[in-house]
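Following up on my earlier thread - several people asked me to post the actual chain instead of describing it. Fair enough. Here it is, all 119 residues.
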Amino acid sequence: MTFVVTENCIKCKFTDCVEVCPVDCFYEGPNFLVIHPDECIDCALCEPECPANAIFSEDEVPEGQEDFIELNEKLAEKWPNITEIKPAPEDADNWNGVENKRKYLIETPESENQDQQEK
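Reply from S.P.:
Thanks for posting it. Predicted structure:
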């Protein structure tokens, strides 16, 4: 079993969870964090630390957000590992609790987006 970062992390990207993870299984994208399912030891330390309540046990992911299980796995393979707490985006509190944020998820770094647009 693993823990999964879900929709409410998008544009909030608080990193309190990263600081308590004993196995450094968090990966960071432009506006979202994910947990690598093969590295997570199911310790549950991250879940209560998330100010956005965006982390759930895989078997407790909210209805309608099951695609985040696969999304965490996919993005953890391409994003860099994050092991230290960072400041949240300035507008993170404004995004906390906003519904239907999936459309705002940025899966590739901005520089990669620009490279693809130039081709």
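The two ends are 41 Å apart (CA to CA). That should answer part of your original question.
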